[in-house]
Amino acid sequence: xxxxxxxxxxxxxxxxxxxxxxxxxxxxxxxxxxxxxxxxxxxxxxxxxxxxxxxxxxxxxxxxxxxxxxxxxxxxxxxxxxxxxxxxxxxxxxxxxxxxxxxxxxxxxxxxxxxxxxxxxxxxxxxxxxxxxxxxxxxxxxxxxxxxxxxxxxxxxxxxxxxxxxxxxxxxxxxxxxxxxxxxxxxxxxxxxxxxxxxxxxxxxxxxxxxxxxxxxxxxxxxxxxxxxxxxxxxxxxxxxxxxxxxxxxxxxxxxxxxxxxxxxxxxxxxxxxxxxxxxxxxxxxxxxxxxxxxxxxxxxxxxxxxxxxxxxxxxxxxxxxxxxxxxxxxxxxxxxxxxxxxxxxxxxxxxxxxxxxxxxxxxxxxxxxxxxxxxxxx
Length: 379
Fold this sequence. Notes:
Elements lengths: L2 H14 L7 E6 L9 E6 L3 H9 L3 E5 L5 E4 L1 H7 L17 H13 L3 E7 L2 E9 L6 E7 L1 H38 L3 H30 L4 H4 L3 E4 H19 L2 E6 L5 E4 L1 H17 L6 E9 L2 E8 L24 H4 L5 H12 L2 E7 L3 E9 L2
Parallel strand pairs: 9-11
Antiparallel strand pairs: 1-2, 3-4, 3-7, 5-6, 6-7, 8-10, 11-12, 12-14, 13-14
Helix pairs in contact: 5-6, 6-11, 8-9, 9-11
């Protein structure tokens, strides 16, 4: 064998043993509430360990390239859509005809717009998260089966609403009978007890009213029933000032409004925007010091309106910040009976902001005061 033949033989052998080009897929995202997916790192789609990893994940996953063609899909996603591996390399329409999913994926492919939404497929409810993968031309969609969670939530909402309605009827009757008794009673000692019954009945009715509000806000169709119109913030702030005047006078708390208030409107149902402002101002008043201040500042920038409610009251310790919007949570348990609130005000604010997609943030320091900012987008 001459030297030329040996050289050709070596080249052919080298070609046969060449390692296929690596197709590196980088996945970096955190699980959203309701999902057990949490992947971080990277893998090669020809690696058996990577294939085993993606196929053992309980959530459905697929990725699509810049043309909208499927590049990777795991077994869970194939089962969800009743497809097979032949869809890999093909357009998304070969996997699903769901318009909302297709639009979200293509929107992420073209404009890098991440999305979170729900779809109903095969009698099940899936939370879908569409995200552009960093430093790649790939878009990933993750499907989490939340059917059981949604059904349990619906049952809780129904119980919450039914129990509230059942309690409201007898309490209203008790309040009416108590008022009639007070009119005809001349005994000062009995009037003392009547006054206690009236106060506690009013407090329970207020609590039930807030419970019903939360139940209504948790309804997924609530926003579509809402009568959304431009609402002037100045009108809402003046109305809240009138409503809270008695409580503010009792505590010698002053209420000041400033900023870009003239002519500024927010697109919402009037009752919703009123509940947000009223609950924030009420909370700032009730947990303020005697002679304290509550300030409402409105700031506008392009299509964004920010409402900042601040006080110089008792403040909130850092360890309590994460829980302050929970139902019935109170920073100072010893003051819960004296504050006069229901413990649901900030939870109602959180639900309304979530309903409209408004931003909600809080900064506070114990002994200094609290500042809550609501950001109304596209107002």
